[in-house]
Amino acid sequence: MTSTPSKIAITGASGQLGRLVIDALLKTIPASQIVATVRNLEKAQDLVAKGIEVRVADYDRPETLEPAFQGVEKLLLISSSTVGERVPQHQAVIEAARRAGIKLLAYTSLLHADRSPLGLAEEHRHTEAALKESGVPYVLLRNGWYAENYTVSIPVALQHNAFLGSAGEGRISWASRADYAEAAAAALIAEADQAGRVYELAGDQAYTLSELAAEIARQSGQPVVYNDMPEDAYQAVLVGAGLPEGLAAMLADSDIGVSKGGLFGEGGQISALTGHPTISLEKSVAQARKA
Ligand SMILES: NC(=O)c1ccc[n+]([C@@H]2O[C@H](COP(=O)([O-])OP(=O)(O)OC[C@H]3O[C@@H](n4cnc5c(N)ncnc54)[C@H](OP(=O)(O)O)[C@@H]3O)[C@@H](O)[C@H]2O)c1
Question: C-alpha distances in angstroms, 11 versus 125, 236, 247?
């Protein structure tokens, strides 16, 4: 008798990380074993075209969650993008996963969430505690910063010949979204039991924003320096650039966290999962300039 291959579901599958996780999974398992869960089916038509089953799972509509997880063995909970609302959203997913009998829940937390100085860590700590209480077997994927968080600002930096922030000379062990996605996929398909593991996922190399500015200058041939600012001044600049107050405050607070070493990690755990080094500073900047 042959057994039915186990299914892996990804929440937030219409987002940037979710799509990359699915691409990484497709290199090893067939589309028929993947369930993409999204809050808006219209945004997932390309996934349907890849032969992937798409189901609705909206963190804000708990009634959608348990049905979406039926028949699924492993679930990747990609943390929600609505900062401030994430604890009840994630709790609803965890409760639905418990009811649906999920055998392994992987959660995208934050690097060193248990001791991180970043304000963002609070919701991740609550989610990790909810996982512990739930009884659902889980693995923590504590992600550091995406390189893209910074490289997205390269065009603005080139306009002003300056990269702004409040990160001081804090070292950031960033990796690309694709690196984190591949690491998540590797944990989901690993033969070794992942339950109870805590991965501190950080880039193999750490960089300061001064080093980033120097690399942008080197590759572009234009002068670009890093201007470090007090937290409130940086927040005001971000608001002036059109960011909502809450997001600007969160970004400025995160930079202060960086200045305290909050996004520095030893590295090595992503590359151990993926089998290759994480993205270099040079390649991050080159890729972003090409995009
Ligand atoms: N490590 C880092 O540097 C870093 C940086 C930014 C964010 N993050 C965290 O990592 C997560 C993934 O990053 P990303 O780059 O993929 O972000 P993203 O592109 O913004 O994707 C977020 C995903 O969450 C989904 N989502 C939001 N609210 C939801 C709800 N109520 N129910 C179901 N799905 C919902 C979004 O759905 P829609 O497609 O319908 O909008 C989207 O698919 C983020 O959500 C955030 O928690 C990490």
Answer: 19, 34, 23
State the burial class of residue 236 (Cβ atoms within 10 Å of its Cβ: 0-12, 13-18, 19+).
middle
The values of phi and psi at residue 172, to 5°, are: -115, 120
* Interval between CA 14 and ligand 1 midpoint (Å): 9
Q: Thinking of the domain 7-143, which architecture would CATH place it in?
A: 3-Layer(aba) Sandwich (3.40)
Say which CATH architecture domain 145-175+202-265+273-291 belongs to: Alpha-Beta Complex (3.90)
> Could you identify the atom of ligand 1 that is nearest to the CA of residue 17?
16
SS3 at position 289: helix
pLDDT tens per residue, range 252-289: 999 999 999 999 999 899 999 999 999 999 999 999 98
* The model's pTM: 0.97
